[in-house]
Structures are given as structure tokens and as C-alpha cells.
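stage 2 :: seqdesign
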């Protein structure tokens, strides 16, 4: 088999036919097993390509496009992960319509217990705050938080995990190099420090509406369970929950007031049998992880939270003018890896602002540390 016809290359070529998934490959490969004249030693992708109908569909033009995709990925630093490779997420590989190829920026966390946290793009302030807290607590238990980097609940889920120095995965409905929503640049940068950004769509793919439901099946497919924290009746998060049911994943939801439309979808999931979640302990119980201990990340107990408050106050006192992160770390005698999640949490609370080159300053009206009085 030539370099251009390795199984990985063939899968890449096939994947560029939009909508083609593992289930299609299996059905076609089974059909080729019944076709005469194919070499017995050929791999399933190779057997598929040797079939004259598929060979015509995946012409030299398709091979040229695959070559261009590889060149683009090399240029932007994105990895191409094919189904069946060691780097392909094992949970997603078990899904019948798993994508043949994933494009990835960053490193996929090695943890075996990812949980998806999703919800409305226009949530209430309380819904966002609960989501951040839940995701932070899950991260402190070693859970990788999976979400879609959309506005609202998705962004809050990533922010919460990052604030606890946890790992998080953003699954996109566009190419990994396409910034969507446009204001998510800082969030994407922070996610790449602690996890990865993945997509089944090749670089440059635009975020068209029909691609987001397809993206949602990846969010649920990469997780052991899905938590809907706040969703109205027609939220895309309900599509993710439906995929989770089809994939045999746990579906959980946070209850809300029946008089508020913001939680109508979440409440309906509970009526249909979703597990109720009021905190991280409920999620761990559903997943059979109730005995898991806290990670040694900042905030692992009341004493540690009090230390966080003290560190926040020290940071605010030091930021009488714009300072670089290395200067803050040196002055406060705190290692940068330990300092970064606290700065990130303070940034989310709008207590401080980060500028170019990791320079920080106080906001014009810094808030009060959220943990004071713990």
C-alpha cells in the first residue's frame, strides 16, 4: 500500500465527504465483504477504496483535498486523529456514528471520567454561576468537563473547570481554527492550556447552523454522562441529551422554578426520567464515583478556600499598577502554575483584567472576592 493509501489517509479522504461516519463505513465495508475479487489481506478501509464505486467517489481530486487538509493542519499545529488510533477517544469510538476523523488542538486529557455540562446560550446569572461552581467541583474530583464553547452555559462550564485548574474539552461545530463565537478567543486560549479543542470538521469549516446538532452527538459521545444545568424548551442542549440517551450515557438535569421559561427544558428532562443534580455529589453518585477523593488542586477544602481568599486579597494589593504574571509570582512567592488558576478565577469574577503578554491589572471597580466569609 502506498503512502497515499494508508488506512489513516483513506479514512481522511472518506471523512471529507461531509456526513460520512463510522456507521456508513461499517455498512459499506460489509457490502465489500460480499463483493468478489477483493484481496483477502486488504484492510477494511483499503477494501472500501478498492471498490470501483467508492474509488470513483474518492477521486484524485479528493486525494488532493486531503493533502491540502494535511498541509493546513501542519501549518496551524492541529493534529489529525483517525478512528481506531490510540489517540482517538475511547468513549467516542464506541458510538455507532462516530466521526472517522477528529481534528484536535491541544492534548486530550488522559482521565477516564469525562462529563458533559451543557445548557442555554442565554442563561440567567444564577444559572451561569451554578454551572461554574458545579464544573469547578467536578474538576476538583478529577472529572474532565466537556462542553461546546458556546455562549452562556457552555462557556461557564469551561470557565469553572479552568478556575479549579481542571481539564476541559471544547467540541466545536466548525473548524478548530475558526473562532466562534467571536468573543471566545481568551476562553479558547485558556482551554488550550488545560485541555483541547476538537472538531470533526476540517480547518476552515464555517459554523453553519446544521453543523451544531452533529457537534452535539460528539459532546455526549465523549462523556460518561450529560448534565443540563439550565435550558429552555427549545435549547440545543436537549439535542445533546437525546443523543446521550441513544448512546447509553447518563442524562442529568438541574431543577428550576416551573414559572421560569429558562428552565422549562431542564424540568422536562427530569419529568422524563433524568437524574436530578443539585451539586457535584449527585453527578458522582450517578456515575458510581461517590467515593472519589478531592484532587490536590486549589480549593480542596474550607481551609484551602480561606487561603484562596487571602491570595486574592494579596494579588489585588500588589496590582496597584499593571504587572506581569512572573512579577506577581515572584513578589507573592507563589509558583506560576499555582498562581495561574487563581488569576483566571479572578478574571472570570471581573476582579482583574489580563492584557497582552500575560500582564494583569485591577478592574476599574474590582469586585469582592466571592469566597470571603467562608
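stage 2 :: out
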Amino acid at each position: 500500500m502506498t503512502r497515499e493509501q494508508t488506512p489513516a489517509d483513506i479514512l481522511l479522504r472518506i471523512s471529507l465527504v461531509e456526513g460520512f461516519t463510522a456507521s456508513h463505513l461499517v455498512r459499506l465495508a460489509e457490502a465489500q465483504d460480499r463483493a468478489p475479487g477483493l484481496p483477502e489481506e486488504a484492510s477494511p478501509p483499503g477494501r472500501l477504496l478498492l471498490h470501483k464505486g467508492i474509488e470513483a467517489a474518492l477521486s484524485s481530486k479528493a486525494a488532493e483535498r486531503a493533502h491540502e487538509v494535511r498541509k493546513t493542519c501542519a501549518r496551524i499545529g492541529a493534529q489529525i486523529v483517525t478512528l481506531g488510533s490510540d489517540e482517538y477517544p475511547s468513549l467516542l469510538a464506541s458510538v455507532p456514528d462516530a466521526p472517522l476523523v477528529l481534528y484536535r488542538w491541544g492534548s486530550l486529557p488522559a482521565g477516564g471520567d469525562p462529563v458533559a455540562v451543557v445548557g442555554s446560550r442565554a442563561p440567567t446569572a444564577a444559572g451561569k454561576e451554578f454551572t461554574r461552581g458545579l464544573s469547578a467541583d467536578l474538576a476538583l474530583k478529577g472529572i474532565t468537563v466537556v462542553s461546546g464553547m458556546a455562549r452562556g452555559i457552555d462557556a461557564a462550564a469551561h470557565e469553572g473547570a479552568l478556575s479549579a485548574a481542571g481539564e476541559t474539552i471544547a467540541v466545536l461545530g466548525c473548524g478548530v481554527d475558526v473562532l466562534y463565537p467571536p468573543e471566545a478567543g481568551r476562553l479558547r486560549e485558556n482551554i488550550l492550556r488545560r485541555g483541547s479543542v476538537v472538531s470533526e470538521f476540517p480547518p476552515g469549516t464555517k459554523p453553519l447552523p446544521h453543523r451544531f446538532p452533529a457537534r452535539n452527538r460528539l459532546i455526549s459521545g465523549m462523556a460518561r454522562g450529560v448534565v443540563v444545568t439550565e435550558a429552555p424548551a427549545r435549547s440545543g442542549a436537549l439535542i445533546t441529551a437525546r443523543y446521550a440517551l441513544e448512546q447509553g450515557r447518563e442524562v442529568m438535569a438541574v431543577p428550576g422554578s416551573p414559572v421560569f421559561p429558562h428552565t422549562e427544558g431542564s424540568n422536562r428532562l427530569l419529568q422524563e426520567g433524568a437524574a436530578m443534580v443539585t451539586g457535584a455529589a449527585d453527578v458522582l453518585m450517578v456515575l458510581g464515583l461517590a467515593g472519589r477523593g478531592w484532587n490536590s488542586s486549589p480549593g480542596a477544602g474550607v481551609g484551602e478556600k480561606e487561603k484562596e481568599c487571602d491570595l486574592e486579597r494579596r494579588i489585588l494589593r500588589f496590582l496597584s499598577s499593571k504587572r506581569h504574571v512572573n512579577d506577581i509570582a515572584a513578589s507573592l512567592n507563589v509558583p506560576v502554575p499555582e498562581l495561574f488558576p487563581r488569576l483566571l478565577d479572578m478574571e472570570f469574577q471581573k476582579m482583574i483584567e489580563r492584557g497582552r503578554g500575560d500582564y494583569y491589572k485591577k478592574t476599574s471597580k474590582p469586585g469582592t472576592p466571592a469566597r470571603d466569609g467562608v
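stage 3 :: structure notes
- The domain at 115-286 is CATH 3.40.50.450 (Rossmann fold).
- The chain has three domains: 3-76, 115-286, 302-362.
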